[in-house]
Amino acid sequence: MGKSIIILIFFFSGISFSQNLEEAIYTAAETFISNKNDASLKLLNQQESSFKTHVKTKDEQLALVFLQCHKGYYLDEHSKLKEAISTYEDALKRFNSNELSKFSDFDIIESCLKPLGNLYTKTGDYTNAVSTINQYIFLAEKNKNTKHQISGAINLAKLYQTLNKHETVLKIVDDAFKFSNINSHQKALLQNIRTNSLAALNNYEAASLLNNTSTSLNFEKYKNNYLIELQKGNYPEALNAFNKAHEYLSEINLSVRDLAKFYVEKAQLYHLLKQPNDALKSLQQAIKILLPNFNGKGLPNKKDLYSENTFINIFDLHASIQTNPEKALESYDLSFYVSDLLQETWTSQETKIFNEASNRIRSEHCIDILFNIYKQTKKKSLLFEAFQYSENNKASVIKDMNLKKLRLQQFPNDSLLAKEFHLLKTQEYYTGLLIKEQLGANKASAVNHLSEKLSAISLQLKTLKIAISKKYPESNKAYTLESFQSKLAKDEAVLVAYFFGKNTLYQFVISEKDIDIESIRLTEEIKKKIISFIHLFDDSSIINNDIINYTNQAFTIFKLLNFNKLSTHKNVVIIPDGLLNFIPFEALLTSKTTTTSYSKMPFVVKSQNIIYNSSVTFYLTENQERKSKDLLGFFPVFENTNQKLTYSVNEAHAIEKEMPSNLFMNIKASKQNFIENAGNYSILHLSTHASSGDFVNPANISFYNDTLFLNELYSLDLKPDLVVLSACETGIGKLYKGEGAMSIARGFQYAGADNLLFSLWQINDLSTSQIIQSFYENYNKSESAFVANNNSKIAYLENEAISNEKKSPYYWSAFVYYGTLDKAKPNNMIFYIIFGTSILLIIVFLFFKFEQHVRNTRKISS
């Protein structure tokens, strides 16, 4: 250390007398380039820190960009991916903020953007990867640099191949082939990419034909043959092709990472061929390549691992080969550990959601292992461990946002936390604009501008995350079974949590005294039954046209989901998962029935109070409740259109009667008025149209003059106690494993809503109005959305003015309540009656005593 300081002092004293700063930076960079090792990197880091505090001119800034790009390249080569990303990001920020492209012809694409995009791909940060690659494709187009345009297309195609979007890959490749000056190397790369995607789409004939006529090296041709045979399921032929590729390994210069991946692929093939020992040997080779100091025995230590997703493939495969369950769990836990390391650099929720799928598969394997051990040992502690695996990746993005919100509530004056929260909302705002731009004219310049904005925000969030982590180190405050059961006892409730896996549907039932588990094999028949029941609510006529079919299916699903196990509990907290997110549990039947009268049917809602939550974390979290119950309502009504909501006006009058409220009607129910006012009220009520979205458009909700899209909703900062979405499909959207539906309801949750009442399908205007009116009547009395939701449904079923046809569960069970299990407040009138009666009895008693005392006094005196 002392020697380094002396060198630095000598170095900088030399700068001040003999060199200017620009020359010193280039000298430091070139010295490092000529002798790259950890010692010279350490010295370079010290020099860089000093340079950063002194650079001022554009020449000096450009010199520092040059230094950082070479440093990033070295870090990438030596598997220090997190540090490499940080270095490249700083170089790119420096280059853009100083507008160095106007000053120099420095190739920022080749030196920085390309390697940075590849690093994002390596670390699973797919949102930033797409954004970065698109940025340099745009820049290459602008500069008419077809070489970089083609290389951008190649990297983008590889990225989409990683995401299994093979149709998109083929389109990108076809467009790239249209360039006239494509060189032979680029042509070979594109042919390989096309061959792989054709094989993935089961177009084997076209894939083989292209591979045989391609200009690729022998290694690539045999590797492609391996992939084609693997996809076909011809594993022995795949192994022959793989071994042929291995013979030509020396003709291609693979990176450390790609070489490790090569051996992982070989291990996967051996595993499919049921050759576990050979598979394990290949995995040991892969680990040794990534960790040169690894001793080749067992599994590496956590402290030696870094953010490289190849480790995840290694440990997942290692776990699946194991016959010892404890060792398998140890391997999976290493995968989870590396996944957590990768997540430290992710800033967008899209990236987090996409990567949850692999964590979910791993969680299912862990639950399988623990369940099998439990069947042998009957240890209840194993069930709680399995339950925690099932909950780990449920609604993780919303949970993370909720934790940030709670931390900011705890430390409201912390500028770091406030800035982080603001940046997260700004990120969603620009993401919303980007989606709109892509849905519209899709001007390349506008898309590029927004991508640059998002990249800059991502960089700021990473910097903040480091500072916040140091200030508020995460303490592992994992809930215990005892604390969990204590809350259930207080709420007089039972919790049922589902895990909808690939092969098994697990049901966890936790009461104040016990924990239990059931496993349901997810056969095609079982899946069809669940899907069939959900589709009964596609249209109002389906149930009414065949009531007996409905009653049979509703009782079948009740039994299938083991809901009979909860019959002794009045309050039931449900954590649904997967397709179960779309099931109205209140509308299930507790017994078989032949009646066609809906009011006489044994619906679950008649015997139990149902509450939903996305994750057990939300059930356990104590949220700050506002004292006031002021309501903000939006009723566009849509007069003089074919979308007119006739009964929405009745709904508004009923709310006005029951609640202190500020209602925006017709033209005043604008998107702008909502954005400006929504953050100031305890209750938000929206009576309007909504859509779950489609493959192109995200979920959205309509105002009088405009539409609010899901990402725009994410960008808002709301703090309501309750949001009531009196609109169609507000709980439906594209379903992601673990995270749930990308719905308008989820958008409000992300924006800050603690409790929500929303719909699962398109609902009738009149029925909605009646349900909502009843809800607010009950809410005004009970001050509990949980109680009001259940009571309003029972009141609807018992209302003799409503016809049997309109009492179909289609009309009343669409609304589900996600939030707090808050019990009804004492009825003040009952309190006054009891209090008055008590006072009267006391007065009568005292009067009687007084009379008795007078009589006794008279007797004595006489």
Automatic annotation (TrEMBL):
It comes from the Bacteria. Keywords: Membrane, Transmembrane, Transmembrane helix. Residues 569-819 form the CHAT domain. The keyword Transmembrane applies. The chain crosses the membrane at residues 829-848. Gene3D superfamilies: Tetratricopeptide repeat domain (1.25.40.10). It holds the Pfam family TPR_8. This is CHAT domain-containing protein. It comes from Confluentibacter flavum.
